[in-house]
Here is the input.
Amino acid sequence: MEYAIQTDGLCKEFDGFRAVDDVSLRVERGAFYGFLGPNGAGKSTTIKILTGLMGPTAGAARVLGADIHRDGLAVKQRIGIVPEDLCLFENLTAREYLTFIGRMYRLPRPVIEERREELLSLLGLESEAKKLLLEFSHGMQKKVALAAALIHDPDLLFLDEPFEGLDALASRTIRLTLERFVGRESTIFLSSHILAIVERLCSHVGIIHRGKLVTEGPLAELAAEGSLEQAFIDLVGEPEQTSRSLSWLEGNG
Here is the structure.
């Protein structure tokens, strides 16, 4: 099987600390893959390696059948990314920014204009399209980042906390859009702390803890005996803080 993402022994060190430690992932084409872990587990570092933003200390990563670091440009033309830090060009309007991204992917101008307007309409940004991005709320900027990730019709989408800062209506629109995206055999690699969203959307899950991949497989198998939340806690351990409480909440009032 040719995987959408395949890593073998992937490692990343920072001053002797292994943020990613011997991670071997297998993400099938057409999967909606949820990548989970506590804060500082190595999720964002792994995504940066898989998208060519950072090189590994050791190991190999293949994305859409190609080595992401030897064939990085060809791979990047076929993937879309919504990073944790959005890194938008905030002195452009939403319409200008999407036009710029479309031109970076060498899309024909009529295609850019058609897709740009469809995306702005879908995400409820038509009336805001002439505002500078620096005037947008975080949730609105998140929508623009998603539009930019989709405009070139990628085969693989990387999403790092895509629902953070979105209201319920925007979250629903994006969920439906992502479901349609994978419905045509495209692949999504999603990192999120919102387990309910992962449980609702994802077909497969991988859990990373302290840089190591502790489990990977179909969501139905992982949560077969209960909820994803319980399976997650069983694998990474319950935080010590959960047994503590605030002293002034202990009294009888």
The two ends are 62 Å apart (CA to CA). The mean pLDDT is 90. The chain has nine helices and eleven strands. The CA atoms of residues 203 and 250 lie 42 Å apart.
